Each structure stands twice: as structure tokens, then as C-alpha cells.
Predict the 3D structure of the following.
Amino acid sequence: MIDLVQPLLNGERRALARMLTALENERPGYETALAALYPHTGRAWIVGITGAPGTGKSSLVSALAKAYRARGQTVAILAVDPTSPFTGGAILGDRIRMRDLAGDAGVFIRSMATRGSLGGLARATRDAIRVMDAAGFDRVLVETVGAGQSEIDIVRAAYTTIVIEAPGLGDDVQAIKAGILEIADVLAVNKADLSGADNTVRGLRAMLELGHPASRTELLQHHGQLMSVEPSANGHNAPLWMPPIVRTVATNGQGVDELLDAIEQHREHVLSAGLVELERAHIEIEIYERLRETLLLRFLQALPGDTLADMLRRVQAREIDPRGAVSELMGLVGNQAIG
Amino acid sequence: MSKQAVRVLIAKPGLDGHDRGAKVIARALRDAGMEVIYTGLRQTPEMIAEAALQEDVDVVGLSILSGAHMALVPRVRELMDANGLRDVALLVGGIIPDDDIVTLKAMGVSGVFGPGTSTEDIVKHIRALQSGQGA
Ligand SMILES: Nc1nc2c(ncn2[C@@H]2O[C@H](COP(=O)(O)OP(=O)(O)OP(=O)(O)O)[C@@H](O)[C@H]2O)c(=O)[nH]1
Ligand SMILES: [Mg+2]
């Protein structure tokens, strides 16, 4: 895989595509290649785009990419869709809405299925984003469905997160829910051409006002800016960001320039408020995750034969409680596993 | 613990406006555990070759009902080859006369599937291609 590194850095699209497959498949040597690419990362601005199914994420990503191209910036798109838990297969259909980007060498689109296990999604996505960053794209746009935990994890790899809402998806206020406040840097009300958009905007605004500024603490925490969450008396210099609400019609481009401006304003805000802290927070989360995974894997490998299965059986038979089971397992191999 | 998945691009080149058949095949391949990149209607050969490159697929499946297969398929193959995708298999579904099937296969199409084909046969064909390559 290491032979892909130089061509990828030179901008060869096939090398980029093959590297993405290599990391998804965890092909031998992919880790060395990723390590060689890492020093070349940290240049792209990473934008996460999430929202309920059918809100227009792909259409909006496509429109945003076009707008970025008009401003002379290159764009990589990563469109993530769920793998069917029953068959392990997936239909990745986001490209359908990205036809307009065809034939532009300044755009690269990759569809990705969530595939395997817990936590794996965030890991592969993060690696894929890094590879696109190293390939030299100015902006990386990451589309993910929904707002479940795994999507929030992905969002933690982004510097700016857009949450998309659209009218006509049932009870808007219900659909919106509080979790969004924690992750949204910009809110887009797409399908603004449909009736009900005003209601969606109103609902979002009410929620934001409720949440501002005290409950923004959490947002700031997520951005690693814990130090001054109190808005200063005159409102100046406080590192507070109030997510703007932008109305868009992805299908005709209306509002897309405004959305792009909002992203870029947020970028300016983060750059002045301290990208260093934001990045450090992301790195900390990632290192914790990887440590947890690695330790668990080593521990399980160090367990003899069917110790684990046997322990599960004993817990189920009420011979031992789950805590006791863990202590006993730790006692069995704890030190070797870590050493 | 293999994380491998077969990736297939399903595209509908040309101007005919039905993609029901293509969707049925996409779902069947998904149900067989494959990752299907579905690109929708009215794809040009250039779009298809570009998507195949970016998505790094193992197989490209074209659904063509317009009768324009002799113009479209060789062009897709040519552009894929030019993109360095000589190893990527190309399958064609549609109403294709026997003579054309022979010609298409000679041009590097690995399988041609008529209207009566069961989706199982297509799955089998792709699996056979994979085991032939991957071993
Ligand atoms: N009226 C209207 N329709 C839109 C707009 N944006 C997208 N759509 C339509 O909404 C449908 C879904 O759009 P997508 O872009 O595929 O939405 P998505 O959120 O990416 O969907 P998933 O990836 O399946 O979750 C398509 O039929 C679009 O044409 C809009 O601004 N107005
Ligand atoms: Mg989509």
C-alpha cells in the first residue's frame, strides 16, 4: 500500500480511490501508508452534513460543492450510508443527486458503507477524511444520515457541522430534538420551497433561543473551548457561536451561497477562537477510542480458549454478577494484556 | 476477520427512462452482501468510467434497454481501460441480440444478461469472477 502514497500526494485519483479501499478493507500495509500520509493532513476544512433521511443532504452537498468550485476551491465528498445488518450489503445512492459534478477534476466523490462493528464506522470515516485531506482538497464534505450516536461520532471529525432539516417530515419539533443543538454549527432548512418551511424555521429558532447561551456550554466543550463559556458583559470577544439558520432550495441553488458563507464564517470563527483546541479535542477523543479498542482486543486475545464464553454462561446462571466477572477476568490476564 | 466487500457500480447509460430493472438488480446484489453504488438514469460513458474509478469498484453493471448498446458499451470499456480499470469486470443487462453478445464479449464484456435472467445468476456470475481474481 505504501506505493500508493506518493501518487496520492501527487494528486492521482486512482491512487486516492485505491487507498480508500485499502483502509476500508484493512488491507495489509494500510496502517503504514496512513502513517506516511498523516504529516500531509490538517489543511482541508472538514464539513459534516447530517440530517434525517430524504431531507436533501446529497442534493445540498452537490450544490455546495458547485458553489465552492465557483470560488476556485477543490472539494472531496464522502457519502456514508448504512450497511444492512441482515445481509452485510448496502445500496449507496447518494451519487444520483451529484450528477452536476461529473467531469470536474476538482471534485472527487466517494460512497462508503458503514460496514462492521461498533466504533468502526467512525474510525474508517476519520481515516478516509484524512486521506482526502492529504490528497490536497481544500474542502472535505462528509454526508451521514440521521443523528444517532455513530453519526455524532463522525461529526466529531468535522470542523463545521451542518444539520439539515426539511418541512413535511411529520412533527418538526419532535424531529428536531435537543441533540442537534450539541452538534450543529449551522442549521439549514432545506426544501424552503415547500409549505411548512416557515414553521420549521420558527421551531428551530425557538429552540436555539432557549438553548442560548447557557446550554451552549456543551457545544463549547465539544469544541474543546471550556475556558470562557460565560458571555462577556458587552457581548464582545466571547467565544460563542450562535448557529445561523439558513433556508435553502438545493434543487435550484437558492440560499446555497448563503449556506456556504455561513460555513466560511464559522471557519473564521473557529480559526480565531482556536482551531488548536478544537483539533486537540478531536485528537483526544480519537486516542481514547483507539486505546480502548486496542486494550480490549489485546485482553480478549490473552484470554485462554473459552474463558469468556464460560464466564458469560456463569453470569447468566447467576453464579456471579457482571462486575465480579470482570474482576475475575482482569485477575486472570489483566497484567499480561497490558504489558 | 475479513472486512472485504464486493463493490459494484450499477449505471443506466443512454436516454431511456426506466430504471426499475436496474433497481431490482441493485437490491438483489445488496441482499447478496455486496455494496452497490447506484448512479441513476442517463449516465454518459464518461460519468460511468469516472464513477468506477472514484468508487474503486470490482464490477460495473450497465442496464441498457434503448438498443444503443453497441455504441455505449465499447465506449464505457474504452474509457475504463484508459482510466486504468482494465481489471474491472463489465456486465451488461438488456435486450441484446446473439450476434451482438459475441461482439461485446470479444470486446471485454464478461457477462450479458437478457430480460429473463434471474438475479441469482448475476450474483453467481459476480461471485465466480471474484473467486477467479481474488485467490
Ligand atoms: N422540493 C424540494 N425537493 C428537494 C430539495 N432538495 C432535495 N429535494 C428532493 O428530495 C429528495 C431527497 O433528496 P436527497 O438529496 O437524496 O436527500 P438525502 O437527505 O441525501 O437522502 P438520503 O441520503 O437518502 O437520506 C430528492 O427527490 C430531491 O430531489 C429542495 O430544496 N426542494
Ligand atoms: Mg443522500
Q: What stands out?
A: Residues 86 and 115 of chain A are 11 Å apart (CA to CA). Residues 41-274 of chain A form a domain with the Rossmann fold fold (CATH 3.40.50.300). Confidence is low (pLDDT under 50) at residues 214-238 of chain A. The interface with chain B takes residues 13-14, 17-18, 20-21, 24-26, 83-84, 87-93, 95-96, 99, 102-103, 108-111, 113, 115-116 of chain A (CB under 8 Å).
